[in-house]
Amino acid sequence: MNVLGTIDRPVTHDPKKQAPMKPSTSEPTGFATPDFTTTGAIDSRQNRTREMQLIPEALARAHMHDRLHDADRERRALRLATARRMQRRAERASLRARRALAMAVMQ
Q1: CA-CA distance, 77 to 70, in Å (whole number)?
Q2: What is the pLDDT along the chain (107 residues), one digit of tens a residue?
C-alpha cells in the first residue's frame, strides 16, 4: 500500500498543495455542501500574515511619530522658558536704566 499522507500527518501543510476535498459517496446527494474553492480563505490568510508582518513596522512608525511630537513639544517648552528668562532680564535692565536716569536727573 502506497500511502502518501494521512489526516493526522499530511504530506504537506500548505493548503495550495493539498488535494481538494471530494464529496463522499456515502452521503445522500443534496445534503452535502457543494464544493467550493478556498482561494478566498487562502488570500485572506496571506493578507493576514502580510498584515501581521507589517505590525512591527506600523508600531515603530507610531513610536517615532510620538517621539517626534514629544521632541517638538520639548523644544517649544524650552523656547518659551528661554523667552521668559530673556524678558525678565530685559525688564531688570530697563529698571536699572530708569533708576540710573533718575539718579542723573536728580544730581
Answers
A1: 10
A2: 566 667 677 777 676 666 666 655 665 555 555 555 555 666 666 666 777 888 889 999 999 999 999 999 999 999 999 999 999 999 999 999 999 999 999 98
Nearest-5° Cα angle at 18, 49 to 14: 25
pTM over the 0.70 mark = no
What string of H, E and C letters represents the secondary structure of the chain?
CCCCCCCCCCCCCCCCCCCCCCCCCCCCCCCCCCCCCCHHHHHHHHHHHHHHHHHHHHHHHHHHHHHHHHHHHHHHHHHHHHHHHHHHHHHHHHHHHHHHHHHHHHC
